[in-house]
UniProtKB/TrEMBL annotation:
Pfam families: HTH_29 (PF13551), HTH_33 (PF13592). InterPro entries: Homeodomain-like_sf (IPR009057), Winged_HTH_dom (IPR025959). Residues 110-164 form the Winged helix-turn helix domain. This is Winged helix-turn helix domain-containing protein. It comes from Candidatus Schekmanbacteria bacterium GWA2_38_11.
Amino acid sequence: MNALKITNKNITREPLLTMADKIEGAWIGVRIAGLLLILSGWKSTAVAKLFNLSRPSVISWIKRANEEGVISIEDKPRSGRPGKLDEKVISVLEEALSKNPEEYNLSRFRWDGVVVVEFIKKKLNISLKPRQARNWLKKLGYVRKRPIHNYIQASDKGVKEFRQSLKKKF
């Protein structure tokens, strides 16, 4: 019996590693797999190449595992300033995002980073940058889309005539 192989061309190392970046906790599984490969005799260079990491990263995994044991696989809390948006602010923002910005006397018809910054400043007196607001929109599951412009006065006949007039005539 032959071993099963992945034949789908879309499944390669890069998209899988990209998914590991998106899924919370996936890198813990990658660390476990890496340490299992080290235990089975793989070199740190080969493991680093397999997971598209730097060799020093894999070496630090090994050192931490030797010092701390199995607990070293889990992520440690990282230092840094806590975010400005707590659960109360998030709930207010989610409620607002379910409605039109015009209902809050904002001059736009679609939510984006700038509008969210303006809303949070007016409603909760919290200052954010537009990039931070876009990050929060993304975390809440909203995506940025460009508006689709339809010109009502354009007819199919007129569009065809315009395109034909643009074509080179030899």
